[in-house]
Amino acid sequence: MNSFKFLTAPDVPAAIQLTDDQPLAAFIAGGTNLLDLWKYNLVNPTALIDISQLATLSALRELENGGFRLGAAVKNADTAYHPIIESRYPLLSKAILAGASAQIRNMASNGGNLLQRTRCYYFYDHQVPCNKRVPGSGCPAREGYNRMHAILGASEACIAVFPSDMCVALAALEARINVTGIDGERSLAFSDFHRLPGERPELDNNLKPGELITSIDLPEKGFPLNYSYLKLRDRHSYAFALVSVATALEMDGHTIKEARIALGGVAHKPWRSLEAEEFLRGKTACRENFAAAADIILEGAVGLEYNRFKIKLAKNAIIRNGMMALDPDAQLPGAQPSL
Amino acid sequence: MNTDKNVGRPISRLEGREKVTGAARYAAEHPLEGLLHGYVVSSPITKGKIVEIDTTEAMAIPGVVDILSHLNRPKLAWFDLQYTDMDAPPGTVFKPLYDENILYNGQPVALVVARDFETARYASTRIVLRYQQEPHQTCLEKHLDKARAPKKGLATALKPPPPPPTGDFENAFENAAVKVSATYHHGTEHHNPIELFATTTLYQGDGKLTIYDKTQGTINNQLFIANVFGLHYKDVRVLAPFVGGAFGSGLRPQYQLFLCVMAALHLKSHVRVVLDRKQMFSFSHRPPAVQQMHFATDINGKLTALGHNTLAETSNFEDYTEPTSNWSHKLYPAPNTLFEHKVVPLDVYTPMDMRAPGGSTALHAIECTMDELAYKLKIDPLELRLLNYSDVDPSAGKPYTSKALRECYLEAAAKFGWDKRIAEPRSMQRGNKLVGYGMATGIWDAFQFPSRVQIMINSEGKMVVDNATTDIGTGTLTVMTQIAADELGLEMADVEFRYGDSKKPFSMFQGGSAITSSTGVAIVVAARSMRKKLLKKAAEMEGSPFRKAKEEEVVFSSGHIHLKNDPTVKISLKDIIAFNKGAAIKTTKMGRPHMLKLRKYSLATHSASFVEVEVDRDLGTITLTRAVTAVAAGKIINPKTAKSQILGSMVWGISKALHEESIMDPQLGKYINANLGEYHIPVHADIGELEVIFADEKDSLINELGTKGVGEIGLVGMPAAISNAIYHATGKRIYKLPIHFDELI
Ligand SMILES: Cc1cc2nc3c(=O)[nH]c(=O)nc-3n(C[C@H](O)[C@H](O)[C@H](O)COP(=O)(O)OP(=O)(O)OC[C@H]3O[C@@H](n4cnc5c(N)ncnc54)[C@H](O)[C@@H]3O)c2cc1C
Q: Is A232 a pocket residue for ligand 1 (Cβ < 6 Å)?
């Protein structure tokens, strides 16, 4: 049998120390991604370090700066249904609830969600080449069935997309990621956490080996009045986004004071364009302006044989979601027939 | 039928509690002392040869017992014939671990046997296999030039080729007033029952084997195993007490059965082999197809020409066909017809029947073409069907034994509110949503197979009914119990139906929506004989009031025989058996279709589906809001289990129209979404409100019960109805399935 060690640690430093002793160890939180990868022969850790019970990773709490901290081991479901998230960061709540299924959200942790791997068919099949899995082996997706793949920020080596919904909202909200490693603690801006594939598609993010995500900090501003998360996929639930959009607006009458727009399902990381958001500042919230912003966001988008549709779909989705953000109550779950 | 007390009632399935509480054991769940576990090693290449198998490292893993491959497997039957099963298409049957040749991706190349499943699976990753690859062809659309006529064989009997041409199709089509030509594309689908394919073989050591198998045909697999391994068929017993869905995939013995039995015989031990979900994509599937349609009408909408040419995938070793081009002329009369069916052999496993094989693919193309004609003619689509309605089967020139399709159309249309449809596409809206109405016809076979049933009345006066059929989740147990109870006037609680066992009297595999009519009729025939026997015995009893009673003068009810004209005169079945010295009375009879009488008729079930969709104007997202399907399938034995069959197949129709596809990467020659996360089937949110209507269809000709079967007909009309609704909503006709929402923006 495939034997491995199952290790627990009393606290964060001890957990990190374990990674130093066991270089081929993996942290395990909910296991909803790690165990799948293992069963598919994509990873083969010699030890698991259970972080799901660590107290510091398990809290949801207010921060002194007015923000809110999400423990890395807190479950996606507990995060989405937390009263403060629902009232102050409803965009995040909606994005989480658009993902996976109720059962998976009950297991999945916030830290694990950030580190879930792409759903590219070719990545998932250890019997075929994949630059992300085996650097330099090639990319069958480029000439293959690339319906789910990237239209923005892809490289010759890799066209995979990052599949998370939660992270699209976190990108729009400009969360920060707190990590601890053997060299101490550091904090990363959300936009610096995930990376584009470039020449190194095997790296999904800028976490260093052995580093543990301890928490995610939400800033004070949660855009509770005007927000919307729109997820477009091949069935109405339990499917990954082909395109998703998180929109958060701060309004002054009909005028946009501040806009945040992040896209999921289109790139190797949640996609934002500061230029587009700047463009919307001071503009009327209307279809035309959202369309113009969409054009800025999608500048340079490249379609392949099966994913070309994403360019137009993303544009239409950005426009629609902008309009929906003006009236978020109209599209709370249940009031949203076709999505 | 003696009484009609249970038949016609919506009775919940009798084994439901066992299933929902987990008490029901499926093929992989029978515990055995000392059981060994096999894990299948699948070929990662699509075509070529195995040049080396190095098992040194794997064999050294503690707990590994053996690794079987073509290099070290025991000697097996040599001739193809011995591998043939009742559903084998013409060609050379695939023989697992036969030699070094790789015929398709995912082909089993070795079986690791270990003391537990985890060790076997782990050891499979430690085997070094080297291959010599050859170029492969796996993509239907790229190799249409290879199309050729299929070979004929035994299986052709159930799957007849399309009828010969009539009139002068080319000329008629050329000069027709109104015509539509269109090409429809269908992808591959895999059955994916939730129960994984599995076999547990009990090695009894006395030359006998008891095999728990996931199958739709216990006797089919019993004979297969006996033939392949040179055993006497009486020494092989195949049991399938519960089957967690199969949808056609269990009509043929699958390779896990072969490998499991081979390992059990070789190792002289109990062995279990369970496939994993990815391996569920390594055998049977619904073949992809290209259908070229040419339909024409006169200016009033009467069809004048029907042309339907199907090009469908098959493997390079067997010629699988499903009736596809055959259907339009069974529904619609037209003087000029041309129907063809060709196969394109590729480096894939042989396709296999999957719920409404051929019919669900064909009727999509046929009924979408009819829809397109309706728009061209500016005739309501329903009216066009009624205009071309036929009580006879035009393709055979024979009347149907019964055909309540008109009632289906009208009742479903009324329930649905079809009259509220505004004809113009894109003319109905709800906010951002375009609303579309679509309808389509369904037609399917009404098969009956020979079936043999034993009935026994035991010392308690209770009835035991034996037949080898399975219950693949359709409600067979419940329905047979209902039929049997009424035949002898018993409570259902006093009837035991024993099934899922090859030792029981003969049944064909459970397919083609045939078992209710097959085993059900056999029960009727055997019960008739039993009533005779019981009456005769009763007449022999001392002072019997039945001494002179004729059959038609008595009635069986409440566990007694009564005189019809004085029901207080009665004898209990229990007393009759007591008089028989407590010995059970038995009878075994065969039920058969009345071939001679039925030769003058055509037999079919019909349906009409009406569907409403909403399509988002900017985003293309499709929501099926509601659907109504009316079915004409003769007598409905159990309206509850029958409704479940129709609901389930309507959901499958949604799946086929909008979700389900096995994606073949032509470069790699393999299906790349071989898991249930990426092989999409509808979730609850995709299903909308579904309604089922059973049209009142009395059929006194078809068989003793007047039944036709409901397992498949509910699926047939749905994909076209959905496609047509999408066209009505958006003005876009998508000539392929599944329809992706992005095609609508
Ligand atoms: C069928 C299915 C459908 C899904 N659909 C969606 C969807 O629609 N949208 C969506 O967003 N997600 C979806 N998911 C993904 C799901 O959200 C992730 O699997 C989940 O969030 C991962 O969390 P986990 O706690 O289970 O992670 P694990 O599986 O425990 O870990 C994942 C990875 O993160 C590492 N890790 C975990 N926690 C930490 C930490 N604190 N610090 C450092 N490393 C850590 C692990 O070592 C591992 O490499 C789906 C998953 C499945 C199985």
A: no
Which residues are CB-contacts of B217 (< 8 A; sequence separation ≥ 6)? B86, B87, B250, B251, B470, B507, B508, B509, B510, B511
CATH number at residue B41: 3.90.1170.50
Q: How many residues does chain B have?
A: 745
* B682 close to A (CB below 8 A): yes
Per the domain annotation, does A329 fall within a domain? no
Q: Does some domain include residue A293?
A: no
CB-CB neighbors (< 8 A) of B683 in chain A: 235-238
B718-730 vs B639-658: helix crossing angle, rounded to 10:
50
In this structure, is residue B487 part of a structural domain?
yes
- Using CA atoms, how far apart are residues B88 and B252, in angstroms rounded to an integer? 7
Q: CA nearest A263: which of A162, A186, A185?
A: A162
A39: amino acid identity, one letter: K
**Pair (B266, B305) in one structural domain:** no
Say which CATH number the domain at B502 has. Answer: 3.30.365.10
Domain contains A101: yes
A130 contacts in chain B (CB < 8 Å): none
Which chain A residue is nearest to residue B277, measuring alpha carbons? A40
Looking at the fold, whether B171 and B319 belong to one and the same domain comes out as yes
**Structural domain ending residue among the three candidates B236, B265, B281:** B281
Q: How far is B276 from chain A (nearest CA, A)?
A: 11
User: Domain ends where: B558, B592, B626?
Assistant: B592
Chain B nearest CA to A259, separation (Å): 22
B206 part of contact set with chain A, CB < 8 Å: no
- The per-residue pLDDT for B418 is 98
Q: Is the pLDDT of residue A335 over 50?
A: no
DSSP one-letter code for B355:
S
Would you say A217 and A68 are in contact if contact means Cβ atoms under 8 Å apart?
yes
Nearest-angstrom CA–CA distance, B40 and B57:
17
Q: How far is CA B636 from CA B315, B496, B684, B713, in A?
A: 38, 21, 27, 13
Give yes or no for residue A270 CB within 6 A of ligand 1: no
Contacts of B119 in chain A (CB under 8 A): 1
The answer to whether residue B272 is domain-embedded is yes
Asked whether residue B617 is domain-assigned, the answer is yes
Per-residue pLDDT tens for A38-82?
A: 999 999 999 999 999 999 999 999 999 999 999 999 999 999 999
Contact assignment for B63 to A1 by CB distance below 8 Å: yes
User: With contacts defined as CB-CB under 8 Å, which chain B residues touch A127?
Assistant: 44
Q: Give the number of domains in chain B.
A: 3
Question: Chain A within 8 Å of B129 (Cβ-Cβ)?
Answer: no
Model pLDDT for residues B491-544, shown as the tens digit of each residue: 999 999 999 999 999 999 999 999 999 999 999 999 999 999 999 999 999 999
Answer yes or no: do B257 and B175 share one domain.
no
Q: In the prediction, which pLDDT does A337 show?
A: 37
For residue A122, the chain B residues in CB contact (below 8 A) are 672
A235 has a pLDDT exceeding 60:
yes
B460-497: pLDDT as tens digits: 999 999 999 999 999 999 999 999 999 999 999 999 99
- A41 closest CB neighbour out of B125, B667, B678: B125
pLDDT in tens, B180-203: 999 999 999 999 999 999 999 999
**Mean pLDDT throughout B57-75?**
96
Instruction: Report yes or no on A84 lying in a domain.
Output: yes
Output the CA A333–ligand 1 centroid distance in Å: 23
CATH of the domain at A199: 3.30.465.10
Domains identified in chain A, total number: 1
Query: Which residue has the least CA distance to atom 47 on ligand 1?
Result: A27
The SS3 assignment for A117 reads coil
Closest CA–CA distance from residue A125 to any residue of chain B (Å): 8
Residues B77 and B217 in one domain: yes
Alpha carbon B348 to its chain centroid, in Å, reads: 21
Q: Does some domain include residue B28?
A: no
Do B659 and A121 lie within an 8 Å CB cutoff?
Answer: no
* Complex prediction ipTM: 0.96
Where in the sequence is the domain holding A92, given as residue range(s)? 56-115+169-218
Domain encompassing residue B45:
36-135+194-246+250-281
Cβ <8 Å between B659 and A316? no
Tell me, in angstroms, the distance from the centre of ligand 1 to residue A26's CA. 13
Sheet holding B178-186, edge to edge: B336-346, B303-315, B289-297, B178-186, B736-737
Same domain, B523 and B482: yes
